[in-house]
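Researcher: If only I could read backbone structure tokens as easily as an amino acid sequence. Walk me, if you will, through where the backbone shape changes along the chain. I have put the entry right below:
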Amino acid sequence: MSETDPIQQQKITTYIWYAVILVCLTIVAFPTIMLVCVGMVPTAIATFIDRTEDKYSVYCIAGGNFCGVFVYLLELWGSHNNISAANTIFSEIFPLLIMYASAGFGLIIFMVLPPIISSVLQAIAQRRLNLLRVVQTKLVEEWGETLIPADPSTEKLAVDTKPE
């Protein structure tokens, strides 16, 4: 037996529990599971397509997709909550459009937000640099030019230059 056997055993046990929970939910709430499975197709596709380790795009797509599906889950739960009510939702194009377009909106957020956040962080860093330069100028005025080395490439810490 190798050392990875307990890890593999734990994974298998976890998958078995997921399957048991899914079967129980299917027995208890089949129309809900049916609506979620049909509505969350873009999330399943994104899970298989995204090869990155972190899967941030899947999180964004799943969040948007679930928002679109949840609206119709509430409609299903507020009505008769049977298979014919779920089929009524599927037979119309508008609910499917809302579910899938909300997943597309999650993808748009994933693609647009990182450059915006990067720009904001860069602006914050530039502002901080400018403030530090003002403080440096005040220190130079107070202590003199000896604070600034003549050649920045040969700059050493004061600790390194002291004889022992």
